[in-house]
Structures are given as C-alpha cells and as structure tokens.
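Two folds, back to back.
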Amino acid sequence: QAHICLVERYMDSMLVLEETLGNVFSGLDLAWVRRNVSTSKPSQPVGESVHELLDQLDPAVALKLHEGNEHDLALYHQANALLDARLADISDLERKRQALGERCQAL
C-alpha cells in the first residue's frame, strides 16, 4: 500500500503514517519540531489560492497554465481524496489528531 503525504496537510499525513506503520513499528511517534515555517502563508487552502491567482491573469494565460498542469492537478486532487479516505478509516480521529499536536508542542 502506497503512502500519500501532502506538505500542506502534514499533520494528517503523519497521523495516517503513524496509524499504518504503528502496527509494524511499535511505539512509532512521528511528532516533529516545526522549522522553516513561513508566517506569511495564507490561511486558505492551496486550491483557493490557485484559483485567486488564475482569476488575476489574462484568461488565455490562465488557460495555458491550467492545460500545462492538468495532470499535476489531477494527481494532487487524487492524493487529497486518498488521504481523506485513509483519515476516514481512523477511529477516534480528532482525539489522535489532538494528541499528535500535543506531542509536537512538547518537543
């Protein structure tokens, strides 16, 4: 089974990896220390940022960009859907998400 990790959904990605690999590696803890994190990043999802940028471009340029990245966008959407499906399979998801966040804060 392939593992999908998305940088903008790092917490969820690590949670899925802990759940999946924890059966093989007892006591696996993927808590991390945040480093090199921009404070100027927008709080909106990446997809919304992309749409806002495309809206500011000339329509012909936006179309070329979209066409040139069509496969990348499809892969990105598929990866998000797969990550969502794996998260849906985790029992007590919110409690585990909170616990991972607390472990990260403690580092």
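---
second:
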Amino acid sequence: YYIYITEHDNLLSRNLLTARSYASQIDAFINRYNSIAETLSFSQMNYNARSRKEVLNYLEQIAYKDKYILGSWVIYEPNAFDNKDKKYRNQPGNDELGRFLPYWNRL
C-alpha cells in the first residue's frame, strides 16, 4: 500500500510538472503572437503608407516571415486610409463600398 501511495504521488507530481511546462510553452507562444498583432495594429495607426499596394506588401511580409502566421489583415474605417474608397469599390482588398480591408494569407 505504501508503495502504491508513493508511486501515485510521484506520478501526480510528474504530471503536474509536465502540465506546467506545457502551459508555460503555450503561454509564451500566445504572448509572442499577441505582441505581433499589437505591433501590427500600432504600426498601422502611426504609419503613413503611400498606397494601398504598399500596405498589401507589408501584410504579405508579415505572413511569410513566420511559419505559424497563416495570414495578416487590417481593417480601416470608411475613407480612413486615403479618402479614395469610391475609386476602389469591389476591388481586391476592398469591399463593395471601397473600404480598405486587406487580407493576405499563405494558403
């Protein structure tokens, strides 16, 4: 009985250590990609892109730099990017009103 209890306690301790190790790895993974998303958001708020194509190229670079990032996107308020939404109606990376909402993916 003593051996059973001891082994049971050892097993629980090892499992707890393993679970904590995995949780730590997952936490680091999530924090890394959360930081990337926050950086993308901040960069777009403070970035004066010259063209919509420039933003598409930027999103492409983000998606290709890391194998775990399958896609990247930003969504602008109507006419917030360059005040030319009417010109871009139904174009790739824009909606039916021309609002700029580009999405890039590796799939």
